Amino acid sequence: MITLTSGEMNTWIAALLWPLTRILGLIAAAPLFGNTSVPGRVKVALGVMLALIMAPAIPAAPAVDPISWAGLLILIQELLIGLAMGFAMRIVFAAIEMAGEVASLTMGLGFASFFDPLTQGRSSAVSQFLALVATMAFLAVNAHLVLLEALGESFFTLPISASPISVGAPYEMARWGGKIFSAGLQLSLPIVAALLITNIALGILTRAAPQLNIFGIGFPITLGVGLLVISIVLPYLGGPIQTLFNQGIEASRLIPRTAAERAPPAMPVPRP
């Protein structure tokens, strides 16, 4: 007759629950996985499947009762680690969407906004177009699989532990957040530069021919030049976007690594 003690049951539950929490945190925040169009049942099923695959291979979890206060703190910590790793990759898409917003405002398409199901807000037409291009590139280079690989590596660089993570990981997250503005401006710079030259030319033309209706011809010209520059620049965006993906994955790997290097020593936890 097989008998199980409460300690063994708690160990088995914790060995699956805590990795599942980190995995679900990444799925909820990461692009493509956390899209609102994906049903919640599919996300949970994917998380459970990944947890069943990874749980036997990762380091052993601490012997803590999962329904105790210490187990609850570990649960919250694992959730925050997964959310931080997924959000690090989400910043890459936010930078690309910002490039589209800057290009739309420069072209005069700021009024052409649509509901974005990913951010639950409104975004411009150019921003949504670049976001779709980035999503296709994300799948084409198998960045979603590399992100899952980084998630699996995080269980070895930052194992499940009862010791709290240090402030180094949130600092790295805040530093990486500045990439939204720098990368977004760099991606939109060709379009902004071309439209700046166009506006300067229109200004000179207005001074040379004051009777010219600049409001009647200015908008079609800037819109046409903007669309033309986007069609010219689009084939060359593959390299910068792939570089952003690599940087986002490295940032996802750096967050648990930084927390593991600077984390305080683990406090001894009494066994149940």
TrEMBL record:
One annotated Gene Ontology cellular component of this protein: plasma membrane
One BP annotation, GO: protein targeting
Topological relation to the membrane, as annotated: Multi-pass membrane protein
Subcellular location field: Cell membrane; Bacterial flagellum basal body
Top-level taxon: Bacteria
Pfam families: Bac_export_1 (PF01311)
Record's keyword terms, sorted: Bacterial flagellum, Cell membrane, Cell projection, Cilium, Flagellum, Membrane, Transmembrane, Transmembrane helix
Segments traversing the membrane: 12-32, 44-61, 67-88, 127-148, 180-202, 214-237
Main localization, broad class: membrane
Keyword Cell membrane listed: yes
Family, per entry: Belongs to the FliR/MopE/SpaR family.
UniProt cross-references to NCBIfam families, sorted A to Z: fliR
The protein's role, per its UniProt record: Role in flagellar biosynthesis.
PANTHER family tied to this protein: FLAGELLAR BIOSYNTHETIC PROTEIN FLIR (PTHR30065)
Name of the protein this chain belongs to: Flagellar biosynthetic protein FliR
Organism: Massilia polaris
